[in-house]
Design goal:
There is one protein chain. By secondary structure, this protein is an all-beta fold. The chain has a domain of about 110 residues: Jelly Rolls (Sandwich), CATH 2.60.120.10. Helix content is about 0%, strand content about 35%. The strands form two sheets. The protein has a six-stranded antiparallel β-sheet, with no helix packed on it. The two termini are about 15 Å apart.
């Protein structure tokens, strides 16, 4: 399994479609896909002000607060609190979603998958406490993102290191 390191310093910040923040794409597929035709997309988003989320038709989203004190969401009219760092929260990307930042800006890991073309699971692993072997499912991939501190990996015969999504 090939390992590819995607450095944070190499990510370009782009404005959101609704102008309410910035995103830095980590990886997306298929290669060369844009915002309208990706099957999956993983990014870090700087949420700097309260307001609506951009809608993404036929897309499921999982957000995980990486920095900051969290946010309050309204997803299709239902309240949801994404308050604790490193706790993934899944919601439909085409549901009307609003955000309130009671304690200031946050940075979120954002995983988006196009329904019927891709699916994702987000799991947090705490350095120094959790040890896991990351294995891609048949025809799939694994992407490991270090949200805090440093990530190290070691390949062994019994455990696969983090793979990279198809390019």
């Amino acid at each position: 399994m090939a390992i590819r390191i995607l450095r944070a310093s190499e990510r370009t910040a782009t404005a959101w479609r609704n102008g309410g923040g910035l995103t830095r794409e980590i990886a997306a597929g298929p290669a060369g896909a844009g915002m309208a035709d990706f099957d999956w997309r993983i990014s870090l988003a700087d949420v700097t002000e309260s307001g609506p989320f951009s809608g993404f038709r036929d897309v499921d989203r999982i957000i995980t607060t990486a920095q900051g004190q969290g946010m309050e969401l309204s997803v299709a009219g239902a309240p949801a609190v994404v308050a604790k760092p490193f706790e993934p929260f899944a919601f439909p990307g085409d549901a009307e979603t609003g955000c309130r930042l009671p304690d200031g800006p946050v940075v979120n890991l954002n995983v988006m998958t196009r329904r019927g073309r891709a699916s994702a699971t987000v799991r947090t692993i705490h350095a120094g406490r959790d040890r896991v072997a990351l294995e891609a499912p048949p025809g799939g991939a694994v992407l490991a993102v270090a949200l805090a501190g440093r990530r190290t990996s070691r390949r062994t015969a019994s455990a696969s290191a983090a793979g990279t999504p198809p390019s």
